[in-house]
Amino acid sequence: MNNLRSKPLMLVLSSPSGAGKTTLSKKIQQSDSTFRISVSHTTRKPRPNEVDGVDYHFVSKDEFKILLKKDTFYEHSEIFGNYYGTSKTSVDEIVKKKFNVLFDIDWKGAKQLSDFDELNLLKIFILPPSKEELEKRLISRNQDGKDSIKKRLLAYSQDIKHANEYDHVITNDSVENCFNKILKIIKEYPNN
Fold first, then answer.
1. Comparing C-alpha atoms, which of 85, 88, 172, 79 is closest to residue 134?
2. DSSP H or E stretch at residue 132
3. Are 89 and 72 in contact (CB under 8 A)?
4. Is residue 3 situated within a structural domain?
5. CA–CA distance, 152 with 177 (Å, rounded to integer)
6. How many CB atoms lie within 10 A of CB 47?
7. In this structure, is residue 5 part of a structural domain?
8. Residue 84 sits in a domain of what CATH number?
9. Angle at CA of residue 158, ends 68 and 67, nearest 5°
10. Cβ proximity of 167 and 124 under 8 Å
11. Tens of pLDDT, residues 33-59
12. Per the domain annotation, does 4 fall within a domain?
């Protein structure tokens, strides 16, 4: 697939935590060499197999606050006690190299990105088939403790209220089906 446009596409994938947006983001980047994932800054601790600078830029809360004061981010939010932010510089570098940008962010971040008219955004919200299925996925991925899973399930109801703010809403009943639906949307997106 080759989706280079006159103005790079900025694909935003959002979902309740555990619904598959990170898996889908990586799959899109692997299948389409025109996309680069925007690597966010975060104050949370790395999970097993996460690499600094690849999965996230892991920083302390103090470092994050300094970056925030310097107006470093296009978007930022606090999620489950940790801060996340998308660096303007890193996004601008991707765009300068004529790549499409892929954002793996929550609805709060997507809302903030929407305030920048110069960004060519295509926003897709990913839903799990059900809250029960989401709970199974959170437990089976074995990355979060019981308290964290409980918080993520409580946030689910709030998260899905924002699905109507997106251009498309897709249910992730299977990663492959969801991935193919996203590819179809990207392919049909107007070439600016």
1. 172
2. helix 131-140
3. yes
4. no
5. 24
6. 12
7. no
8. 3.40.50.300
9. 5
10. yes
11. 999 999 999 999 998 889 999 889 999
12. no
| pLDDT exceeds 50 at position 1 | no
Calculate helix-pair angle for 175-188, 21-31, nearest 10 degrees: 60
Domain count within the chain:
1
Residues 27, 29, 99: CA angle, nearest 5 degrees? 165
81 conformational bin, left if phi > 0, alpha if psi -120 to 50, beta if neither:
left
User: CB within 8 A of 101, min separation 6: which ones?
Assistant: 8, 9, 10, 11, 35, 36, 38, 91, 94, 95
Which has the closest alpha carbon to 108: 95, 123, 98, 130? 123
Domain carrying residue 115? 10-188
Contact yes or no for 172/24 (Cβ under 8 A)? yes
Instruction: Give backbone dihedrals phi and psi of 47, rounded to 5 degrees, phi first.
Output: -85, 165
Burial grade of 81 (CB within 10 A; 0-12, 13-18, 19 or more): exposed
| Residue range 96-117, pLDDT digits in tens | 999 999 999 989 999 999 998 8
The pair of three-digit structure tokens given for residue 156, joined into one six-digit string: 């689910």
What does the pLDDT look like over 110-166, one tens digit per residue?
999 999 888 899 999 999 988 888 788 787 776 667 887 788 787 888 899 999 999
The pTM of this model reads 0.85
On whether residue 65 sits in a domain, the answer given is: yes
